[in-house]
Amino acid sequence: MSADTFTVTRTTTVSAPPNAVYALLADFREWPKWSPWEELDPNMQREYAGADSGEGAEYAWSGNKKAGKGHMRIVEATEPATVRILLTFEKPFKAENTTNFTISEHPSGSHVDWTMTGNKTIFTKVMALFGGMDKMIGKDFEKGLAKLKATAEQEHLG
To answer: Are 109 and 13 in contact (CB under 8 A)?
Structure first.
């Protein structure tokens, strides 16, 4: 990692097989079940385009000041191990980041890593004064992974 980039990573273990976790990540229509940002605006506008899931799937959102506006496109998807997303924020700030989900087998089911990397912008440099991107986004990743874990386990066992 260079001084011009940031990386945020969080990890969890899920008591469900990798393909069950992958299905929740590779289909943007499944994200409202677990994404920590979906509840920021109950009136958020969502649009889906491209493939239904996996590489080429696209999702755009527009919401209140908390939700902002942006879009995502899955640029790589290898079932059941990897989902890589190009994430573009338009509001409240402009940024382009890469998000990677890596899913691997674990004795109790699946090990999931969620990583975001991006170039430092004026916004991220200002955020460094308040603990940085890791502190700001890390808690959202933790909340999202907890919801992903609960959703995958409920769907797998249910």
So the answer is: yes
